[in-house]
Amino acid sequence: MGTNFLDNSFFRNIYCNLSKSDDIRCSGGGWLGDGILPAGYEWLAFLITAVVMAMVLINLVLGSVLIFIWAERRLLGRFQSRIGPNRWGPYGTLTPVADAIKTLFKEDIVPTAADRWVFNAAPIVMMVPATMVLAVIPWGTGTFLADLNIGILFIIAITSLSTFAIVMAGWGSQNRYAMFGAMRAVAMLISYEIPMALSLLGVLMLAGSLSLVSVVNAQDVPFILVQPLGFLVFFIASIAEINRAPFDVAEAESELGAGYHSDYSGMKFGLFLNAEFMATILSAAVIVAVFLSGGRGWSFIPSQGWFIIKMIPVLFFIVWTRAAWPRMRIDQILTFAWKGLIILAFINVAVSAILSFVWPDPTMRELWFMVAINFGVLIVSVMAVGAWFGPQGASAPNMSHGDALPRPRPAGQPSGGDS
Amino acid sequence: MIGLGLLNGLIVTMKAAIRGPVTVQYPDRRVGLLGAARELGMSPFQFLVKRPKDAVKAAAGFATVEDKIAQGPRFRGQDFNWYEDRCTGCASCAKFCPLGIIEIVTSPSDTLKSQGEVYNIDVFDIDIGRCMFCGICVEVCPYDALHMGSGFELGTYERKDLVISVDALRTKKNTPSTWFRPQLEETAYNPHSGESRPWTEVGRHEQPTDEELNERWVDER
User: Fold this and answer.
1) Tens digit of pLDDT for each residue in A355-366?
2) Which chain B residues are within 8 Å of A316, Cβ to Cβ?
3) The whole model's pTM is what?
4) Domain residue limits, chain B
5) Chain-chain contact of A324 with B21 (C-beta, under 8 angstroms)
6) Is residue B219 classed exposed, middle or buried when 0-12, 13-18 and 19+ CB atoms within 10 A define those classes?
7) CATH of B80-201 given 3.40.640.10, 3.30.70.3270, 3.30.950.10, 3.90.180.10
8) Which DSSP state fits A114?
9) Tens digit of each residue's pLDDT (9 = 90 or more) over B24-66
10) Residues of chain B whose C-beta is under 8 A from some C-beta in A?
11) N or C: chain A end with fewer CB closer than 10 Å?
12) ipTM, 2 decimals?
């Protein structure tokens, strides 16, 4: 048990109560006295502390899933001139609870043709990345499970596990709709891993570290201003990674039933749903930590409060886009990733590299220069990529059947509508 | 220009969100503490003091108030209004009913012929469980005694309750729909106000005054 865990105030407040430590950061013990456990049981104190922290964080996120489900349904209702759930509890706040109870009591059906092991394991595998990512997120000053020095890499690596879960669900169901959803999801998720990782490179150059805590500490100016292009690409890619509209082809209700979880019922379906909402919340948390300066802000609100306050507009925007934009076709989605986002991400990397070479240790003034330059780069590059790879070239793959020769575009015809 | 369509979608949905919902929460809607107090015409404080139990219930979100959309006066409801004063028991409605669901049993009455020949109506059953609400019975009634009403909440728990008996028709409040009698509309009559119309006002033609009746009939008798 390394003593660097004691940097974490969340950890320290529990650990110092349980175990006697010579460390200066633990001097005076906790509010329960200095060490309840006898000497030699530091491992037990460490274990208890870790379990308590994990339980608290996971349950907080699960609780916020309930709130988010309610908020999303109410907001979607408003966006569609409806009211949304309003019968159970004040303003329908207890609706997710009722949903959860209903889901718990539903029959758990396993199709006869299903590959039982894979089918049953898929929801559990789906929950793994959702619960693991929250370990490295700094929810406030000193409020995190672990300050991994490879935090961002960890997030990118772990979130790709959800691809496995989706393939397992699609394959295990032995259902064509589910398989379609899974195949689409694989194509999409793997494509969007690349711009997602690339868009974070600029952040890493500025922060000089992969640890999320250091990234937050490096943000004297929030990186959404210094890295607007990186933020745009990361935001779009993370919406795709969490399978939400307009990238929800994996479960496209109107086309595939429910996509990869068509055949799931009861609590297995509940786990999928839960993991999806947890992923949404956690991706908002990652965006806040990486681009919106995490829990930093004026000190009259605690840093955890700042973190949540900053998450709300991000989540609101994710819900808003779901209400506003139609689902993209799978070929459009892939074209968008490979011909649009990856190019934008590379431009961002190049510009950030040049800027961090020119100003290796930027002062406040130089940071604001970088903001101005990067916003210029954002506008120019989005326009340029849109013009060269946009609707004209991208969304018109030759879909004509039985037409061997590519159809010539009539002269003088304007390119298609805006994207 | 790239991205304008996306912005447009965002603006449209945000406008809808700001405009607010258009839902009518028939048959009732949940109100909070303030809403319940407003419904009762009290201030929230008065409400808390005078009816604490209801106030707690409202604050927990379990108070409901009726929420209905206003029907037009021509809304052709699914109940029947019957004016016994007009009915002679001729059973035209029963004869013309395409489904044969009206049953009329009459017996001779003690009224004198000089007072107008009328039958006693013993049974007048309309089985609205099988009715298709075509309105032919209303159109063929020579004396304008039968009308379609303006109500529509006729759900029952048993099939037999769907048969309207003569007693139910007698005691029912008559609020005929103006679909069949546009002249009712000219008097600014709205059946949904719950106000009952007397039999003199629901005929196809204007009811003759007593003087006119005297002129036309008394001498001949």
Assistant:
1) 888 887 778 888
2) none
3) 0.77
4) 24-69, 80-201
5) no
6) exposed
7) 3.30.70.3270
8) S
9) 888 888 777 787 888 788 888 888 888 888 888 887 777 788 7
10) 1-6, 9-10, 12-14, 16-17, 19-23, 25, 29-30, 32, 59-61
11) N
12) 0.73
